[in-house]
């Protein structure tokens, strides 16, 4: 199983580190995918290097795409390759998880209309305006899209991800 965590400058450290290790714990090979293969810096200065440069075709290579929040989603959504990769992943039934401000990327990919989603409260108007059915819940799932309000929502998001994968426990 393969997972991609999207990365851009000013990502929220917690929203990258937590899923990175949880996905590894579940048996995933995890790649950091950015607009380019380069070093990206978090809001607090943590540096990580993208393993892979985003390409729309990569949607086929991953079972899960996780999009961290922070200020990175505003930058990620400017990358046509990232947006197209996310759109294709959703269309092909891959699991796409977006936390905090990351549903902005889902909006840009055109995949929230008519779907139950949540996100950080400051983007709720954007979600409504994009035609999403906003739910004021910590985390929610609609089909293959999992969304959460922020770092505190990630344990529930991970539980939902395991449920979608057909497992309620971490593989041994």
TrEMBL record:
Belongs to the peptidase C56 family. It comes from the Archaea. This is Type 1 glutamine amidotransferase. Residues 1-163 form the DJ-1/PfpI domain. Signal peptide: none annotated. Pfam families: DJ-1_PfpI. Keywords: Glutamine amidotransferase, Transferase. GO terms for molecular function: transferase activity. PROSITE patterns: PEPTIDASE_C56_PFPI. The keyword Amino-acid biosynthesis does not apply. The keyword Glycoprotein does not apply.
């Amino acid at each position: 199983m393969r997972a991609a965590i999207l990365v851009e400058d000013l990502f929220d450290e917690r929203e990258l580190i937590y899923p990175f290790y949880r996905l590894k714990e579940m048996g995933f090979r995890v790649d950091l995918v950015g607009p380019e293969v380069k070093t990206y810096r978090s809001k607090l200065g943590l540096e990580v290097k993208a393993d892979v440069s985003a390409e729309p075709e990569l949607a086929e290579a991953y079972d899960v795409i996780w999009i961290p929040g922070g200020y990175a989603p505003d930058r990620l959504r400017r990358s046509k390759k990232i947006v197209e990769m996310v759109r294709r992943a959703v269309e092909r039934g891959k699991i796409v998880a977006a936390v905090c401000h990351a549903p902005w990327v889902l909006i840009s990919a055109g995949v929230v209309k008519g779907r139950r989603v949540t996100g950080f409260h400051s983007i709720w108007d954007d979600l409504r305006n994009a035609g999403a059915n906003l739910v004021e819940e910590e985390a929610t799932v609609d089909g293959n899209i999992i969304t959460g309000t922020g770092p505190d929502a990630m344990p529930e998001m991970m539980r939902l991800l395991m449920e979608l994968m057909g497992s309620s426990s971490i593989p041994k």
